[in-house]
Amino acid sequence: MEKEAKGQLRGIVGKDYFLDSPNELYVYSYDATPLYQAMPDAVVMPGSVEEVAAIMKVATQYRIPIVSRGSGSNLCGGTVPVDGGIVMVTNRLNQFKEIDQQNLTATFGPGVITQDVHKAVEALGLFYPPDPGSMRISTMGGNVAECAGGMRGLKYGVTKDYIMGLEAVLPSGEVLRVGGKSAKDVAGYDITKLLVGSEGTLAVVTEITAKLLPLPTAKQTLVAYYNDLTDAARTVQRVIAAKIIPATMEFLDQATMVVVEDFARIGLPLDMQAMLIIEQDGTELQVEHDIARIADLCRAEGATEVSVAQTAEEGAKLMAARRAALSALARVKPTTILEDATVPRANLAEMVEQVNRIAKQYDLQICTFGHAGDGNLHPTCLTDERDTEEIHRVEQAFEDIFHAAIKLGGTITGEHGVGMAKAGYLDLKVGPVGMDLMKRVKEAFDPHGIMNPGKIFAKSSRRRVVVKTHACEHEHSHN
């Protein structure tokens, strides 16, 4: 990066919010995704939309790549600065601007932590449903960029279902406002929804207006254990067919149960092949009715044991154990690679069987858990990135898993995003016409290609692992 450009950036944000020493930059060279790393040339931390706009103008003038970043908790390599350039950290844009109880909306900056949104609105008897597993540290800007999901996706949907309006800065430095508080708005193309899930490749979001719901007054949690994976998957189908939509329906296979029990010590029966954790919310009468009916359906489909949490604390403990699955798995081996292949829930059992077959074929330890109600599985490989031969098998295994998901009518990602990790597989899902259209949309927003380059659109159809440091660059491609 040119010295003059660095000087301009430092002048915009101030010396305390401009970083360019190797030790400082290293922290921003990776995110929560294993195997991917690349050093930026500078890090800037703007404190206002005006500063964001000024930074974008400098980036465009000098054709400098720019990667917007929140907490870096994403799992698709989405904030790795693969082409160097500027990492723009938006955590200082963390003002909670308004909770509008008349229109049931909240407006805040992209740096606000997701869990803080939950706490703020729930204190007023309101509800923001999306609950990604990283919500204690993830920012709302990151949630918008990746269209984050979570355990409540079955009943309530994901981030895109709650974003009503955005303020965003284009590469030119122009400030764009789209959407708003109106419940109905069909004026032109829906740019709001286009920006949600665009992974920082089109613009930098600087303000978010989200839809809120009334907070449910009651909640109950049920757990069911199974000797057969197919019985657990069939239960999911039966519950939905009975016209019951639970708040959450979570699945853990035996391998995951063993690791979670070692981590959380909650008394899971480790001789079982699978478990479902099902939570329902709503009015007290409706919740009691639904949980009783779900328990009956679990037993009818072969559950060996069904129990209902007797207290809110007991239910919260079960859900906390499920949320701890990734942390528990990460303790087993040095590298934990978590994916999110998703299929229609009617194909859930077959997809789990495919994952187990693929794990055996490639001699890998893959544990599977996920959001059973919406078919969003998280096959998680426990490995060691220093073992290059095994990593090659991991790449081959996940390629087979993605192909299996597509063959079953599913997708390569349900909530993590494409980023670098799945850029080589996007064409499997959207096809050549879809890829061409998305590239043309990208070019309309970002004619110079500076916005988060190397993400979503792969340079080839192969999956790529890229590692860069300030001293050297290495690229490894796996077929």
Write a brief caption for the model.
The protein has helices spanning 3-13, 22-26, 49-62, 114-122, 140-146, 153-156, 191-195, 229-241, 254-264, 284-300, 312-323, 325-330, 348-361, 388-407, 426-445; strands spanning 18-19, 42-44, 66-69, 86-89, 96-100, 105-108, 126-127, 163-169, 175-179, 204-211, 213-214, 218-226, 248-253, 274-282, 305-308, 335-338, 365-371, 376-383, 463-468, 473-478. With 479 residues, the chain is of the alpha+beta class.
Q: How does this structure look, described?
A:
It is a single chain. The chain is α+β, with helices and mostly antiparallel strands. The chain has two domains: 1-215 and 417-479, Uridine Diphospho-n-acetylenolpyruvylglucosamine Reductase, domain 3, CATH 3.30.465.10; 218-324, Alpha-Beta Plaits (2-Layer Sandwich), CATH 3.30.70. Helix content is 35%, strand content 22%. It has 15 helices and 20 strands. A seven-stranded antiparallel β-sheet has the order 15-12-14-13-17-18-16, sandwiched between helices. Strands 5-6-10-8-9 form a five-stranded antiparallel β-sheet. A four-stranded mixed β-sheet has the order 1-2-4-3. Strand 8 (163-169) and strand 9 (175-179) form a beta hairpin.
